[in-house]
Amino acid sequence: MDFKEEAKGKLENLEERIRLLQSECRDRDLIEYLQKLSQRVIQQKYQADLLADELDRSLRMYQNRMQQRDLLEDEKTEEISQGDSQRTLNQMEENEMSDGGLPGQTASVQPTEAIQQPVRPQYTYVSANERSRPEPVLHKKSNTEFTVGAVLLSLLGGAFILAALVVLGVNYMNGFVRGMCLFAFSALFISVSELFLYRRWKMLGSVLTAVGIGGMYLSTVVNYLALHNFPAWTAMLITTGIMVFVVLLSRKRDSALYRALGLIACYLCYLPIELGITNAEFLAVTGMIFLVNVACALLPTRTGQIGISILQMISGAIFAQMFVWRAFWCGVFPVPRIVFVLSSFFVMQLLFIIMMRQKKSEEGVRIAYWISSVFYLAMIYFETAMYDGEKMMFYYGLMAGVAVICLLAFLALLRDGAKWHPYTLVNLTVIILAQFLGRIEGVIFLLALLAFAKLLSLRKPALLLKLNDAALTTIVCFKALAFRFSPDRPDSQLCGNLLFAGVLLSIFFIRYYRTYYQIILTYTIAIFMTFVMPSSMKLPIFTGVLLAGMLLFNNVKKWQGKNIILFNALALSGQIVCFLLLAWPGYRNAYFTYLFMLVFGLGTIILTFHEKYHMNFRCKLMIAAVFLTYLVLIVKIELPIIKSILLMLIALAGVAAGFVEQQKSVRIYGLVLSLVVCGKIVLYDFVDAPNLQRAILLFAAGAIALVIAGIYIILEKKNQESK
After folding, report:
1. What is the DSSP letter of 659?
2. DSSP 227
3. DSSP code per residue over 673-693
4. 538 HSE (CA, 13 A, CB side)
5. What would the pLDDT profile of 557-603 be if each residue is shown by its tens digit?
């Protein structure tokens, strides 16, 4: 019974065979050997084919040995039987002579001695590794030499033979015979390799079969492009048939080489085929390519499955991109092209589902998934931009197709974190298509995506879901500002207001990335409000929104993040920029603007310069004094004496606050400011002022100077008394 073919590549059949032989065998040595072999099968499962060959050889040795032993036993039995008969006759004659008996009288015959069984020789079974290796050690140089000799030379030899046959056919045969001979030679290559060479020399057979597969594809291209033996339809059918054969052969042989070669060659053969066909014919071609890709996905090879799936995912996306461009230049209508894109997109999702559910090389598959997704998004954008027909039906159909495919992928991976990859792809597709829809429709789709992301954020979100939420929020913020910044159409204002409402509602869904959301939302609201306010109120509104954001996010517990200090610093920086812009001459006469800026500036210093806001500056009194001085200097006042009086009041307040808070720097600032103002009064204000203004200025400045001096005198006296 020949078990060799059944044992190849099937460990279960090998184990079953060992158990069967153990139950039938009566040879002790063989039973011991089978037990050891069974343990080796468990420990070395990857050597199933080698063990099967070893078992066949050992079984043949055992059968030959048993046949030889049976022959020896038969010969010995015949010799023993003949010797026993002769000894019996002699003994009878001796008994008759000794007993004096008459001739013909029978005598008692003594039983013969028991026949000894021949001693069974002991046989040693040589291991498979010792049999398969004529030399005990193979060095790396030897391995390299055998690899080059076995693989490279066989590949080159097969390629040269194919090239020779092509040259022979081109020069000495007519067109049809040439083409058919090319197919025949390639088929002969595959047949000889698979039927005769593969069984004895697996590597050589694999290489030659791969050469034959390449020859089949090459023959198709040569017959179509050069020899013109059949039209495009026939070339596509032949290419599809070859690919189906390669899928089945690679599945049977478990060969990643056949599958990879078949995929790449199939795609390359489809590209040069002219696409000047009807829409129905192009859809039929799309169906053939789709079936081939699905067969490759559902009938994978066990060897190299991950690499083949990644190769099919990326190469399929690149091929789809090139095929769509070729179809566009050949005049194929957009709708059939979109059907082809969606069918290829479905294959990518199918491969992603299979790999993710098998938990194989998840990182590599994710990277390949997004590389392929970039090509498909580019194709969708291209097809959408180039479409000139009924746009709404086209866009909605394309969006629905992508959404349905990604929804199926999402449901198939519902218990896996990889389900957020199709969800992200849907978001990107809708964002792209929203650019080509009407403004109101695009805004509605964006708000729907944002609302769905915010609802999903209420649960414990995954990283990819967080990134989706952050990206959608950012896009909505920028789109809201873009609509308000360029109101070139009547619906721009409405679109901007709708998106702005979405921005405001997003504040209530801040749960993670708090600092980022606080920054982007606060600044978006501040900038948006400046667009709807008059020019004189832009800076106060911007400053007020930043102050409100600081108060809100620092006092509500659920919005307080560990990086809130970063938001406070950026909000304070924005306010400082606004105060610097206040010095622009256009605000010289905007007294309400100065008033509101004064209120918001002092409010920021008083309310936020504390430990709770991580801005507990020790010099905040000095900051307040400098701030007030700056505002007085930049404000435009018709009477210069008023500025001098205000500066003297600031100096007085600085001295008083410095003594109360015991901050010497503030007292010195107030003292120096008062002296500078006195000098300004004498050198500048007093020169050109009328007599009445001079009197008022001197009186006010003198009174304030006396108050400052009185403060110093009183406090100095108290210090002396305390000592």
Report:
1. H
2. S
3. HHHHHHHHIIIIIHHHS-HHH
4. 14
5. 888 877 889 999 999 999 999 999 888 877 767 778 888 999 999 99
The 10s digit of each residue's pLDDT in 127-153 is: 444 444 444 433 444 455 444 444 555
Contact at 8 Å (CB) between 670 and 653?
yes
Q: Which residues of 617-644 are buried (b: 16+ CB within 10 A; e: fewer)?
A: eeebbbebbebbbebbebbeeeebbbbb
CB 522 within 8 Å of CB 549 = yes
CB contact at 8 A, 269 and 239: yes
Of 460, 358, 357, 355, the C-alpha closest to 416 is 357
Distance (Å, whole) CA 616 – CA 621: 11
Question: DSSP per residue over 151-171, as a string?
Answer: IIHHHHHHHHHHHHHHHHHHH
Residue type, 688: D
**CB burial string 6-17: b at 16+ within 10 A, e below:** ebeeebebbbeb
Q: What is the DSSP string of 439-459?
A: HHHHHHHHHHHHHHHHHHTTS
Q: CA-to-CA distance for 332 and 270, rounded, in angstroms?
A: 15
Closest CA to 305 of 369, 357, 372, 255: 255
Of the candidates 230, 342, 216, 326, the one whose C-alpha atom is nearest the C-alpha of residue 271 is 326
- The position carrying tokens 């004529």 is 134
Q: What is the 3-state secondary structure (H, E, C) of 370-416?
A: HHHHHHHHHHHHHHHHHCCCCHHHHHHHHHHHHHHHHHHHHHHCCCC
How far is the C-alpha of 484 from the C-alpha of 525, rounded, in Å? 12
Rg (CA), the chain: 48
Residue 169 in tokens: 């056919």
pLDDT of residue 692: 64
CB 301 within 8 A of CB 259: yes
CA angle 592, 596, 600 (to 5 degrees): 170
Say which amino acid occupies 279: N
83 pLDDT exceeds 70? no
Q: What are residue 614's phi and psi, to 5 degrees?
A: 60, 30
In the numeric block, which tokens belong to residue 701? 């400045």
Burial of 117 (0-12, 13-18, 19+ CB in 10 A): exposed
**435 DSSP assignment:** T
CA 551 to CA 345: how far, in whole Å?
A: 49
d(C-alpha 430, C-alpha 381), whole Å: 11
* Closest among 704, 719, 616, 614 to 662, alpha carbons compared: 719
CB-count burial class (<10 Å; 0-12, 13-18, 19+) for 668: middle
CA angle 347, 349, 353 (to 5 degrees): 115
User: How far from chain centre, in Å, is Cα 493?
Assistant: 39
Identify the H or E element spanning 369. helix 362-386
472 touches 451 (CB < 8 A):
no
Identity of residue 98: S
CA angle 100, 102, 108 (to 5 degrees): 75
Question: 603: which 2 tokens?
Answer: 């409010």
User: Hey, which of 82-96, 481-495, 555-569 has the most confident mean pLDDT?
Assistant: 555-569
pTM of the model: 0.66
Smallest CA-to-CA distance from 339 within 354, 323, 359, 363 is with 323
